[in-house]
């Protein structure tokens, strides 16, 4: 067996209960609730030491406490490139490196393009696309040290335009393109990149409050399980784009 093959086998070994994430760390943006929270919780359960970010101090502190020890909750607006770099550097200093980056922070403003304001456009693009670029760029030096995995949380809206979605569609189409180029640029450093593209998810996105009518939707825990499963894939294999849909359509009675 060649040295490179031996390295792949070593990276792919997930034997040992509870040992998968031991000695590794993850940085998850937009993690005070919803998908980011579920992913951070799942990674912590696998033994990862995790930094989670949010723009709200009270929410992120409580979330970190809920997940448990070895979790850092920090305030960070991904639109601020300097703040992102500062928090990634602090994560590396605290945990000795960075193995998993989950780029999740996102916003949505939905309106006919005639009514969509310049400020709303900028908020969506600066958060969903530029914020992803800032986060990935800040993480590259640490991830090059020992390889790693970058996940970008995109959407089926990244390939399916819809009325009133000009800013959101543009941000997710752009994020998909960015993710594909990041994969090409960084895979030579043993850094994988996967874009996860879910459909309807039961989260607080766009001021929605999850409720019993969301039973048919993808749950945040489903995407967290997917993330862990992808991390456990053999090192030689990369699902670079994963589309995720509810297995059944919305069948609740129409009012």
TrEMBL record:
One of its GO terms (molecular function) is oxidoreductase activity. InterPro entries: NAD(P)-bd_dom_sf (IPR036291), SDR_fam (IPR002347). Keywords: Oxidoreductase. It comes from the Bacteria. Signal peptide: none annotated. PANTHER family: 3-PHENYLPROPIONATE-DIHYDRODIOL_CINNAMIC ACID-DIHYDRODIOL DEHYDROGENASE, DEHYDROGENASE/REDUCTASE (SDR FAMILY) MEMBER 4. Belongs to the short-chain dehydrogenases/reductases (SDR) family. This is Short-chain dehydrogenase. It comes from Deinococcus wulumuqiensis.
């Amino acid at each position: 067996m060649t040295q490179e093959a031996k390295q792949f086998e070593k990276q792919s070994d997930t034997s040992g209960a509870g040992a998968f994430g031991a000695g590794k760390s993850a940085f998850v943006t937009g993690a005070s609730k919803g998908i980011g929270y579920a992913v951070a919780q799942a990674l912590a359960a696998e033994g990862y030491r995790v930094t989670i970010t949010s723009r709200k101090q009270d929410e992120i502190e409580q979330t970190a406490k809920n997940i448990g020890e070895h979790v850092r909750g920090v305030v960070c607006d991904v639109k601020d490139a300097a703040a992102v770099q500062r928090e990634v550097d602090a994560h590396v200093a605290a945990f000795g490196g960075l193995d998993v980056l989950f780029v999740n922070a996102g916003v949505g403003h939905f309106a006919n393009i005639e009514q969509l304001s310049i400020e709303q456009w900028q908020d969506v693009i600066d958060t969903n696309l530029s914020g992803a670029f800032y986060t990935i760029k800040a993480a590259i030096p640490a991830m090059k040290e020992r390889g790693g995995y970058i996940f970008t949380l995109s959407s089926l809206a990244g390939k399916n335009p819809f009325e009133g979605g000009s800013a959101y569609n543009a941000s997710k189409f752009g994020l998909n393109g960015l993710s594909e180029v990041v994969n090409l640029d960084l895979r030579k450093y043993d850094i994988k990149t996967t874009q996860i593209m879910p459909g309807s998810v039961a989260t607080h996105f766009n001021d929605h409050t999850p409720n019993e009518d969301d039973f048919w939707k993808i749950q945040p825990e489903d995407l967290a399980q997917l993330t862990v499963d992808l991390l456990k894939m053999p090192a030689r294999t990369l699902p670079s784009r994963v589309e995720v849909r509810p297995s059944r359509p919305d069948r609740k009675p129409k009012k």
